[in-house]
Structure prediction request, 541 residues.
Amino acid sequence: MNKKRKTDEIEKLTALDDDSVEEIAEVCPFLDESHKNRLYALCEKKLNTNKNEKKSVLTENHGTEYILTKSKKKPFFRSLFFTAAASFALIVGVTALTLSAKYALHRSFETETKDKIGNKTLCEISIESNDCQENNADEISERLVINGFNVYDYPEYLAFLQGIPKNKNFYKYTAGDSYGVINFSLKDLNDDKVPELLIYNDDTLIGIYVDTEDSSVAEPLFDMDDPTILNLCEFDVICYKSFDEPLTEIYYEYTGGKELKVIYGMQSFYYKTFNSGELYEDGSKYAYYAVTKDRLPDEGHGWDGERYSFPDETYRMSESDFENTRNTFSEVSIDYIATLPLYDIIPETENVSK
Amino acid sequence: MTDKDWAEMMNKSPQTACKKLIDEYGDLVYAIVINKLKGTADSETIDDCVSDIFVEILRNTDKFLLSRGTLKGFISTIAKNTAIDTFRSLSYRRSVTVSADSEDVVLPPASDRTDDEIEDRLFRRHLWDIVKSLGEPDTTIITCQFFYDMTVQNIADKLKMSYAAVQKRSFRARERIKKILLSENYF
Prediction:
């Protein structure tokens, strides 16, 4: 036997095969009545929550779901409860109004995206806006939701990459120190005889490793830090992410051919603000941006709490100019990251002048 | 109740079906989820995952074709897939980079070590067979303690035994398991 095996073998009473699990459920049932009732209540709540409600919960309550149960307290407490609930609803309403104004553009973008997607193959697709908080780029994002399935939760479905080594073994990691060879297929997307896409369909897979020349050393096949990642999600949707600047995220539909069809894309540019006296004659502070489309992502974001608009089109600049300026003013801090649909940006980037 | 009855009920009255499904298959689903998420998720996440599974089952009743398998198989498949998805989701959120030089990192085996994996699976199966052979209440105690990760106190409450009795029985049961494994040259 393996020398690494632990002394207390009973610890291995896990990761059992299906038959054993079934037997355990029969021999030693876990749930008591109260636990079952709790589960039922949870299910009932989820069954009663339709997608619109989900969206409003996500947007208005910043991702936190509140469960309201019937109060058995006396009328005084009940009225107190209703007062609190009304106040809460008012606050939520105001927040929702603010957010809806902020995301007006994103909504139009959403409609446009839906139009592009059409009713073809991808079932029900919607794009939900996450919570938005000024100056916190991480929280300004959108989620592609397919039939209620959030692709962000499935980064590993995937596989991808350039130059997948041929004649290599790929292993699956199951549990403990168990590994096995996985079944996979390779796709040559551009017909250059080098596969770019590795697709697997193994429900036990939680990690992939490439067998290197030296069999004692393994390297991860994919890495979230790698600037080029393609994630194959369910429904043949592939997510490309680039963590280089500008942050890019594109969703493709993979139909089995050699081409990927863009169904949604966005690119994030760093918006920099700095003392514009060095740049603009009026001495005012302006947000600075590199995107080139007519549409602006937002009215603008303040400097030290001030609000002002982005400069008009005259001040827009190409991506290379933006990069140069960014390098020139390397000391300025990143103030805001905005997200725009990629297909609005790319075609016109080169034609735009300062 | 036949699978056909279940299918009809799930279509007509999802709420009623949900309650009955939890009564009938709740333990199986819970065991499947524990088997995948043990050590990764807390009890709330596990409950959440279990409820997701039942909701998923009810939302996919149309996919449940009687001719293609039993309801139990259908439920088990959804349970396994959902548990794996939850595991992936949790692992992704907690993903960390570990140096390959670290002693904790287990590297993939060479291709000639696939036998080890099979051996390990067989061992786990055998271990469960030994636990089953212990007899009650030892089987339940060991299962609750090492499969469901319950505390000794919770097991004592469940079995209506004293804390000390559970602890003692657990210790003796483990000694017996160890003896059996020793006699079979597992160490």
In short: The first strand of chain A starts at residue 125 and ends at 129. The mean pLDDT of chain A is 44.
